[in-house]
Fold this sequence. Notes:
By secondary structure, the protein is mainly α. 76% of the residues lie in helices and 0% in strands.
Amino acid sequence: MTAELVSPTVFAWIVTFLTGVVAGAWFVYDIINLIRARRADGSDPLVSDRRFGYMVGLVIGIGGVLGCLRFHDVM
């Protein structure tokens, strides 16, 4: 059986959409948590670790969204 279920173009758009949605949701989730963590005591190491983790999540989210945009030559 060699019949394709979807064309390569449709597959690229589906994967791009899924990647963009996950990366965008990840970015929004981490930005909300980072804003909430602002009020916490910064001298607590656990709070600092959480803030660092949220910053890493922001970088991953931005990378995913920018990667999708660059893949389709938007940027």
